[in-house]
Specification:
The complex is a heterodimer. By secondary structure, chain A is mainly α. Chain A is built from seven helices and no strands. Chain A has one domain: Up-down Bundle (3 helical TM bundles of succinate and fumarate reductases). Chain B has two domains: 106 residues, Beta-grasp domain (Ubiquitin-like (UB roll), Roll); 136 residues, Orthogonal Bundle (Fumarate Reductase Iron-sulfur Protein, Chain B, domain 2), CATH 1.10.1060.10. Chain B has eight helices and seven strands; from the N terminus they run E-E-H-E-E-E-E-E-H-H-H-H-H-H-H. Chain B has a five-stranded mixed β-sheet, with helices on one face. Chain B has a two-stranded antiparallel ribbon with strand order 6-7. In chain B, strand 1 and strand 2 form a beta hairpin. Chain B starts with 5 loop residues before the first strand and ends with a helix. Classes of the chains: A mainly alpha, B alpha+beta. Chains A and B meet through helix 1, helix 3, helix 4 and helix 6 of A and helix 6, helix 7 and helix 8 of B.
């Protein structure tokens, strides 16, 4: 066979890139983001210190665009294209995997819309210098609060189901047993991210800092 | 004598691919161990609808009546399955029978599954054993490979896995789970492995394995219990390795 014939189709490369960017860097950034925001659970000062640390990294714009914004835009944009090429049939075949297939599309769209809004309010409007006070003020708005909760749950679900999809689709979990284990791992990640995300929201909303006990006594 | 039990069957009929579809209802005499094919045969014997109107026998494919030939796949009560193993006593009535929706319609319940056979040709789903001279004996197949390969060789190309797949539709040319599983089968055979890279190259072409979105409906719908999702994962692993290599070293 000629060498040109062994070249993979462009759609193959784009699909693989879509799958890969979901974990790296998009999924990894979500983990980093939840981790940094958990600083609010210690104290508002800790949160401000951590945010300022991140807001003053060298080459900030390049890092933001290269590892966060562009990969997310590609993952979300190509994800919508994939959705349009599928035809959900969960009402005729209500199996768990089929439910996950459909839910993965809706949560992806919700997360994409939420992240766009979240970037606008917490990154754009504050000129990249968002503080604890900014976020706490926003979250007092019941509409903002609702959108925060929905966004956190949709993103967490999408990452959890995405990890399962990733492990199956790259052949890293091949046997039925391995795929079940991959499913449990995905579920664990989804639940853990949801919980941490909700705790962070509660922290901002009620000025609740349960880990302040770690701080030295004044 | 006790009143004879009736079986109510509704069949979606269409005289040709471009004709309008219509439903016809039949009431048949119940018999023990009746399956959907028997219903269709009974209608052919006496093609009169429930309202007493004379009609034509229903066109459908079927052959072996034991889930071996793969020809009688259709939608029964909205689900893709083999008509020969669809027992009337286990079905809710009226039993709705429709042709599969993912293949071009021929007439009534008969569809054209040529797409699957073309896809099998595309991925070279065979083992080349003929030459212009005697090629001699091939390598031995280990019992381990035999054990893995046998369930995959049970595929009857019925098309149920394509019918239930949300990724198989008019927007793309996804070949479906059955074909990917055949790539795995022929690649695991020591003689078949000689054409492994050609099969992988075909399966990462347009409509290839990348279209799978892991809904995993295929493995539930397969009448032969083939581990289709395992096959897809195995072929996926070989595929990205080959794609990465061809990208890096040309």
């Amino acid at each position: 066979m000629s060498s040109t014939a062994t070249r993979p189709d462009t759609s193959y490369l784009l699909r693989k890139l879509h799958s890969f960017t979901g974990i790296l860097p998009v999924g990894a950034f979500l983990a980093e983001h939840f981790w940094s925001n958990s600083a609010a659970l210690v104290s508002s000062e800790k949160y401000n210190t951590v945010s300022q640390e991140l807001q003053t990294i060298p080459f900030r714009l390049i890092v933001e665009w290269g590892t966060i914004f562009l990969p997310m835009l590609f993952h979300g944009g190509y994800g919508i294209y994939i959705w349009l090429r599928g035809k959900s049939n969960v009402s005729a075949y209500p199996w768990v995997g089929n439910w996950l297939y459909t839910t993965q599309r809706y949560t992806g769209l919700i997360a994409f819309a939420y992240i766009g809004w979240h970037l606008y309010t917490e990154r754009w409007l504050t000129h990249g210098r968002s503080t604890y006070a900014n976020v706490a003020a926003d979250i007092r708005n019941p509409w903002y609060l609702t959108f925060f909760v929905i966004g956190v749950l949709a993103s967490s679900f999408h990452l959890g189901a995405g990890i399962w999809n990733f492990l199956c689709k790259w052949g890293l979990a091949a046997t039925v047993k391995a795929q079940q284990a991959a499913g449990r791992l995905g579920a664990l990640v989804g639940v853990a991210f949801s919980l941490v995300g909700i705790l962070i929201i509660i922290s901002f909303r009620y000025d609740w800092h349960p880990f302040s006990v770690y701080l030295p006594n004044k | 004598m006790a009143e004879t039990k009736q079986v109510i069957v509704k069949v979606k009929r269409q005289a040709g691919p471009k004709e309008a579809a219509r439903w016809e209802e039949f009431s048949l005499k119940w018999r023990p161990s009746m399956n959907v094919i028997i219903c269709l045969r009974d209608i052919a014997e006496n093609p009169v609808t429930h309202d007493g109107k004379k009609t034509t026998p229903i066109t459908y494919d079927s052959n072996c009546l034991e889930e071996i030939c793969g020809s009688c796949a259709m939608l029964i009560n909205g689900k893709a399955r083999m008509a020969c193993s669809a027992l009337v006593d286990q079905l809710e009535q009226p039993i709705r029978i429709e042709p599969m929706s993912k293949f071009p319609l021929v007439r009534d319940l008969a569809v054209d599954r040529q797409f699957m056979f073309e896809s099998l040709k595309r991925v070279k789903a065979w083992i080349p054993i003929d030459g212009t001279y005697n090629l001699g004996e091939g390598p031995r197949v280990s019992p381990e490979v035999q054990e893995k390969g046998y369930p995959l060789s049970n595929c009857i190309t019925c098309g149920n896995c394509l019918e239930v797949c949300p990724q198989v539709n008019e927007h793309n040319q996804f070949v479906g789970a059955a074909i990917i599983s055949q790539v795995r089968l022929f690649n695991m055979h020591p003689t078949g492995a000689m054409n492994k890279s050609e099969r992988i190259a075909a399966i990462i072409g347009p409509g290839g394995i990348q279209e799978c979105a892991n809904a995993q409906n295929c493995v539930h719908a397969c009448p032969k219990g083939i581990p289709l999702t395992e096959s897809i994962a195995e072929v996926n692993r070989d595929a990205w390795k080959q794609a990465l290599l061809s990208w890096l070293v040309g």
